[in-house]
Amino acid sequence: MIEVASNARTARAYHDAHAARGQALVSVFKWLFARKDVPLSRQALTEPSRCA
Question: Where does the source fall among the domains of life (predicted)?
Fold first, then answer.
């Protein structure tokens, strides 16, 4: 979408809205690709390999 401001107030509002959308997009990607710590159970670490 092309936004054309008719005055300085509208231009500033468009600029602020664009920055807010950018921050929202960044936060979504950070949440989506965040590393999640998943501890392994002790039982899984002590069982012998089934491939051997």
Answer: Bacteria
Residue 39: pLDDT above 80? no
- The single-letter code of the amino acid at 32 is L
18 pLDDT more than 90: yes
Q: Give the C-alpha separation, 21 to 29, whole Å.
A: 13
Rounded to whole angstroms, the Cα distance separating 39 from 33 reads 18
**How far apart, in whole angstroms, are the C-alpha atoms of residue 5 and residue 14?**
8
Between 12 and 43, where is the model more confident?
Answer: 12
Q: How many CB atoms lie within 10 A of CB 20?
A: 10
Which tokens hold the place of 8?
């300085």
